[in-house]
Amino acid sequence: MFTRKILVFVLAALLSMLMNQAIAAPKIPEILTRNGLIYCTHAGGFSFNPQTADAGTSMNVVTEQIYNKLFEIKNNSAVLEPVLAQSYQISEDGKTITIYLRKGVKFHHTDWFTPTRDFNADDVVFSLNRVLGHNMALPTLDTNPTTYKNPQYQVFHEQAKKVRFPYFESIKLNEKIESVKAVNPYQVQITLFEPDASILSHLASQYAIIFSQEYALQLNADDNLVQLDILPVGTGPYQVKNYFRNQYVRLVKNEDYWKKEAKIENIIIDLSTDKTGRLVKFLNGECHIASYPEVSQLGLLKKYNERYYIKSTEGMNLSYLAFNFEKPQIRDVDLRRAISQAIDRNRIISAIYHNTATVANNIIPNISWAATINTPDFAYDYNLDKARKYLQEKKLTLNMWVLNEEQVYNPSPIKMAELIKSDLAEAGVKVKIRAVTRTYLIQQLRNRSEDYDMILTGWLAGNLDPDSFMRPILSCGTVNDITNLSNWCYAPFEHAMNKALSTSNLRARANAYNIAQELILAEVPIIPLANVKRVLVAGARVQGIEMTPFGSINFATLSYRKENKK
């Protein structure tokens, strides 16, 4: 009887807690969903400015709708499609790029900003100089003590100007571009230090969005430049109406959009759920599209096959295990090869990705224009007997750090680390796993106190150019940085990578990148594990989904199929 009373009390308490949570959770107004679409995704790493997000981390789809770039990549190729640019030309010496801009493009008219002019060269110059670390377009703060008695104003103002741009820092953009200037209101000239065939692909990446200089100047005058990154103003097909932190973003159609008009009035970006919760919401009809679903649960959708479809595409990403070359014993290439042979990557694909990924036998993902076709298996693929023969007598104990954050390239990092630990134990190597946060890792790298022999990590590229894929994670210029966690610096690799930038011939570039890739596969500074597909689930009525290798979709192309009347 006593046990029964306890059970009743516990159930009542749980019911009360769930009801309180339901009441506390903000509900999306029904009026917004009548002519709208709900897109369920995650809040992790959310930012209204992808430029400030950590390089190689997953960004939300929101910014693709708010902003435009100068260029986009056409049909997953190396071909550039002008967007805010109309055309471009490159000088004979390859060091000057002249970009001719589109006219008649309007910035968003929002509750917090009213533009007085159209998009022009000043906006491009400001946007590019900002990520280069040049703040010439912004006047300095008046530090006269009669104007500002509180020194915190000056501190805040200066810090807002010092926003970091991890992607552009990882590719050393400020060492590539010497200057950006406006020739006239619709012509921009970019001068390079040396010819660099990757520049335009970087300007087509998801990071290279264009801001309103007029908006920035207005904020700067109010000592509120930080608002540029949190209350966005762009030229895209949708604009922000409101944002409830970690819950949802409401986008409304931009009535002045310069391109084809979007068909759906309201877009609700639901940020409130995890992977399992998104699938539950989708099955309940609370999401029209669910991104990054829990892949182990996709089988649950079979009985709802008339209500949904799964959209997937190859991704420009790589999950890998990096060796720390700061550790003397790790510099033994035979040791690195033997560890590679001890890891069963096919088991990882099955257990972690449920076959929504492929074993990575190369560094460059298959969707890149530089990927080789029909390549042989990775030379140091799973071979437990060979691995055991080399490793067992050494009686090694290795420290493996794990970035404990779910990413597209690794949805279950701790579980993957345990699988690798188990494989290496079979080969006679003891592994100590330590889960670390990105913040802690950055701090350790800054202090040069990172104490790992191996680290489980990965990379997401912003475009299909191999330069933005391999250079950040393996070049000499990024040693002791959050991107190059192997601290590998190898002159022949640098030579091959730099050779690829010296020509605009696509075949010659691809050959140079493949030479660089062969050097990685031979020296094994990292063990490539998986290339992951980008997956989303959509309701049967939703049409027009065009998914990129970077996981984003263009909401402006979406519409609903008409329901058949019975």
Automatic annotation (TrEMBL):
Residue ranges of the TM segments: none
Keyword set includes DNA repair: no
Keywords for this protein: Signal
Residue ranges occupied by any Solute-binding protein family domain in the UniProt entry: 80-479
Signal peptide location: 1-24
Family to which this protein belongs: Belongs to the bacterial solute-binding protein 5 family.
Name of the featured protein: ABC transporter substrate-binding protein
Source organism per UniProt: Caviibacterium pharyngocola
